[in-house]
Amino acid sequence: MIRIEGQPVLTAAEMRAAEDAVIATGVTVDTLMDRAGTAIAHAVRRLAGSNAILILCGPGNNGGDGYVAARVLAELGATVRVAALSEPRTDAASAARAGWPGPIEALAEAKPAPVLVDALFGTGLTRPLNGTSPQTPNTPPAKAGAQLGTAIDDVPGSPNWTPASAGEVSVVERLHTLTTAATLAIAIDLPSGLATDSGHALTTPPVFHLTLALGALKPVHLLQPAARYCGEIRLLDIGVPVTSQIEVLKSPHLAPPGPDAHKYTRGMVGVIAGTMAGAADLAALAAMRAGAGYVTLLGDSAGPPHALVRAAFSDHALANDRIGALVIGPGLGRDDTARVRLDAALAASHPLVLDGDALRLLDPDRIRALTVPVILTPHAGEFDALFGRSADDKITRARDAAARTGAIVVFKGADTVIAAPDGRVRLAPGASDWLSTAGTGDVLAGAIGAMLAAGLDPLAAAAAGVWLHGEAARRSGPAFIADDLADALRSARASL
């Protein structure tokens, strides 16, 4: 099992193309399925120990992987049972089922086991398993039996099992029931009922402890609301070479200052204050804690830390050629004074981090016209205001916004997407839910500003800032406030 940091992320179509390229070399689908099932079996065996295992197999190749895994687990000495939703509908899955020597139970009649493996539906699912709307992203995951799905008898290709004890038991209800009864629930490639590319929940699945991604990570593993159902995610190598412009965010390489370092070589950050001075204070504190050597706050502000240099806002202060990054937007306001300060910042020819109110006062064309490196850090509301609403997935929207503006776009949220104009994307793994408090976005802007001022290229600066922000949140525990988060950037930086 491979950790996901830095790993490529492929859409369902890209993964199929990668598999087809391997098949074109003479490797058969059956061989790929055997590789996947064997990798699953060894991972499950390692995690399950001596506990009994129940594998749920669907009609497609995901189910075929499950049959292979069951056979290999039995060969390894595990106690394993198989429950099937229906007869296989692909040749490879049929061959895999034929290779399983044990009995096959009907899903509707299957009894729970301590270890549950979901191999019902994988990346090919395009419609809900039920006729009701899935839960919204802000709704907690359903409990076992809370939502009914397609009746087992209604699944195409089913053997029309109608056990008297099951009645109109649904696929989703059975999956919830069996998963809830298990002490370890593992999804193969992705939990059944999720859309591979968009992160949407086509049907609300149970929350799994672990998802074993086959061959490559998929957007579903990192985009919300789907990612919340995956639990921990690990990658299994199935012998399919993959490449992608999209990668999972990884820890940055940030070297400590050398013996010849001084405050300016570490990077000078300018933060422009506005109507809510506390937001700019947070951004400035974050820039300092993230490693900037010199931070100056331009505008009305007072109080600690004393190491923060405060000055009146002026064109002269902005003209300091030592400023390596200028952060504007946190608490800026949207009045005439804010507009004047924003205009001056854009004209100052410093690399820019544009956040908060600055994003409400600009349009994509004006950002596109800038000749300095620019990083935008919108949350969903700011993104919609700047670029318009869209039904596209978050990766597509962030990529389009980056291409449209020529800027790095950090589309914030529980599933932060960082996109560059050339199509490169970094996806941040799920961050602490406690980040949902005032001021944490200001902290992120300051941290990114410190990385940009230190000389990192804009995509690397944005990625490093997001990583430090997420790590600081993890280290802060529950119920932190933005001030705590800014302070925790120091230990996050020290962890590298």
UniProtKB/TrEMBL annotation:
<dbReference type="InterPro" id="IPR004443">
    <property type="entry name" value="YjeF_N_dom"/>
</dbReference>
<dbReference type="GO" id="GO:0110051">
    <property type="term" value="P:metabolite repair"/>
</dbReference>
<comment type="subunit">
    <text>Homotetramer.</text>
</comment>
<keyword id="KW-0456">Lyase</keyword>
<feature type="binding site">
    <location>
        <begin position="122"/>
        <end position="128"/>
    </location>
    <ligand>
        <name>(6S)-NADPHX</name>
    </ligand>
</feature>
<feature type="binding site">
    <location>
        <position position="192"/>
    </location>
    <ligand>
        <name>K(+)</name>
    </ligand>
</feature>
<feature type="domain" description="YjeF C-terminal">
    <location>
        <begin position="246"/>
        <end position="496"/>
    </location>
</feature>
<feature type="binding site">
    <location>
        <position position="379"/>
    </location>
    <ligand>
        <name>(6S)-NADPHX</name>
    </ligand>
</feature>
<protein>
    <recommendedName>
        <fullName>Bifunctional NAD(P)H-hydrate repair enzyme</fullName>
        <ecNumber>4.2.1.136</ecNumber>
        <ecNumber>5.1.99.6</ecNumber>
    </recommendedName>
</protein>
<feature type="binding site">
    <location>
        <position position="331"/>
    </location>
    <ligand>
        <name>(6S)-NADPHX</name>
    </ligand>
</feature>
<dbReference type="Pfam" id="PF03853">
    <property type="entry name" value="YjeF_N"/>
</dbReference>
<dbReference type="GO" id="GO:0052855">
    <property type="term" value="F:ADP-dependent NAD(P)H-hydrate dehydratase activity"/>
</dbReference>
<keyword id="KW-0511">Multifunctional enzyme</keyword>
<keyword id="KW-0547">Nucleotide-binding</keyword>
<keyword id="KW-0479">Metal-binding</keyword>
<dbReference type="InterPro" id="IPR029056">
    <property type="entry name" value="Ribokinase-like"/>
</dbReference>
<dbReference type="InterPro" id="IPR017953">
    <property type="entry name" value="Carbohydrate_kinase_pred_CS"/>
</dbReference>
<comment type="function">
    <text>Catalyzes the epimerization of the S- and R-forms of NAD(P)HX, a damaged form of NAD(P)H that is a result of enzymatic or heat-dependent hydration. This is a prerequisite for the S-specific NAD(P)H-hydrate dehydratase to allow the repair of both epimers of NAD(P)HX.</text>
</comment>
<dbReference type="InterPro" id="IPR030677">
    <property type="entry name" value="Nnr"/>
</dbReference>
<comment type="similarity">
    <text>Belongs to the NnrD/CARKD family.</text>
</comment>
<dbReference type="InterPro" id="IPR000631">
    <property type="entry name" value="CARKD"/>
</dbReference>
<feature type="binding site">
    <location>
        <position position="189"/>
    </location>
    <ligand>
        <name>(6S)-NADPHX</name>
    </ligand>
</feature>
<keyword id="KW-0630">Potassium</keyword>
<dbReference type="Pfam" id="PF01256">
    <property type="entry name" value="Carb_kinase"/>
</dbReference>
<keyword id="KW-0418">Kinase</keyword>
<dbReference type="GO" id="GO:0046872">
    <property type="term" value="F:metal ion binding"/>
</dbReference>
<keyword id="KW-0808">Transferase</keyword>
<keyword id="KW-0067">ATP-binding</keyword>
<feature type="binding site">
    <location>
        <position position="279"/>
    </location>
    <ligand>
        <name>(6S)-NADPHX</name>
    </ligand>
</feature>
<dbReference type="GO" id="GO:0046496">
    <property type="term" value="P:nicotinamide nucleotide metabolic process"/>
</dbReference>
<keyword id="KW-0521">NADP</keyword>
<feature type="binding site">
    <location>
        <position position="442"/>
    </location>
    <ligand>
        <name>(6S)-NADPHX</name>
    </ligand>
</feature>
<feature type="binding site">
    <location>
        <position position="441"/>
    </location>
    <ligand>
        <name>AMP</name>
    </ligand>
</feature>
<feature type="domain" description="YjeF N-terminal">
    <location>
        <begin position="15"/>
        <end position="246"/>
    </location>
</feature>
<dbReference type="GO" id="GO:0005524">
    <property type="term" value="F:ATP binding"/>
</dbReference>
<feature type="binding site">
    <location>
        <begin position="412"/>
        <end position="416"/>
    </location>
    <ligand>
        <name>AMP</name>
    </ligand>
</feature>
<dbReference type="GO" id="GO:0052856">
    <property type="term" value="F:NAD(P)HX epimerase activity"/>
</dbReference>
<comment type="function">
    <text>Bifunctional enzyme that catalyzes the epimerization of the S- and R-forms of NAD(P)HX and the dehydration of the S-form of NAD(P)HX at the expense of ADP, which is converted to AMP. This allows the repair of both epimers of NAD(P)HX, a damaged form of NAD(P)H that is a result of enzymatic or heat-dependent hydration.</text>
</comment>
<comment type="similarity">
    <text>In the C-terminal section; belongs to the NnrD/CARKD family.</text>
</comment>
<dbReference type="GO" id="GO:0016301">
    <property type="term" value="F:kinase activity"/>
</dbReference>
<dbReference type="InterPro" id="IPR036652">
    <property type="entry name" value="YjeF_N_dom_sf"/>
</dbReference>
<keyword id="KW-0413">Isomerase</keyword>
